[in-house]
Specification:
9 helices; nucleotide-binding; single chain; 56% helix; coenzyme a biosynthesis; Dephospho-CoA kinase; 5 strands; Rossmann fold; 5-stranded parallel sheet
Length: 209
């Protein structure tokens, strides 16, 4: 199996790159989706969040009120750290199980694990490659305004609240520049896939022992 950690700032083109790699045959795991799964009604993780932050973070239907929880933790570093200490280990355990399942089903599988907070959460799966998508701040802000409907001040605050591009680049094996055209981004993803196939072929041909 070949495990890729894919990360990057908000609106930096992670989804575009992930989609392209899936078109080539990769399996995509999305940390944001897994984070939703681990807090579904009835989970130990949701109960731990209620114990930490009170009943007001749960809606009448028993689901997590993400907006209310977000309001509590967004401005409070200590509260955010408490939330992360609950959610991150649960996501790590679930992602570990799904990665192991993919490998069991196909030992040659290429798994792209899309982790926006790879640096912040110190995700330490045994990645074969860490790929960082990188776009200029102005491009991220423009995308948040045009594609997600945020006002420019909100958009800028969202970008500024994340770790710097330099910190992400420090852990990268490959940086994909997504500040240009879509075709430019796709071309880099295609070239990355060629490199991955080459690495897998070399690994298969290498004598064992």
């Amino acid at each position: 199996m070949y495990l890729i950690g894919l990360t990057g700032g908000i609106a930096s083109g992670k989804s575009t790159v992930a989609r392209r790699l899936v078109e080539h045959g990769a399996i995509h795991l999305d940390a944001d989706q897994l984070a939703r799964r681990v807090v579904e009604p009835g989970t130990a993780c949701l109960q731990a969040i209620v114990d930490a932050f009170g009943d007001e973070v749960v809606r009448a239907d028993g689901t997590l009120d993400r907006q209310r929880l977000g309001e509590i933790v967004f401005q409070d570093d200590e509260a955010r750290a408490r939330l992360n200490a609950i959610v991150h280990p649960a996501v790590r355990e679930l992602s570990g199980r799904l990665i192991a399942k993919a490998e069991a089903e196909d030992p040659d599988a290429v798994v792209v694990y899309d982790v926006p907070l790879l640096v912040e959460a110190q995700v330490d799966h045994p990645f074969d490659l860490v790929v960082v998508t990188s776009a200029p701040k102005r491009a991220q802000v423009r995308r948040l305004v045009e594609e997600r409907g945020l006002d420019p001040i909100q958009a800028e605050a969202r970008v500024d609240a994340q770790v710097s591009d330099e910190e992400r680049r420090a852990v990268a094996d490959v940086v994909i520049d997504t500040g240009g055209t879509l075709a430019h981004t796709m071309g880099q993803a295609d070239a990355l896939w060629v490199d991955i196939e080459h690495s897998q072929r070399e690994a298969r041909e290498r004598p064992s022992g």
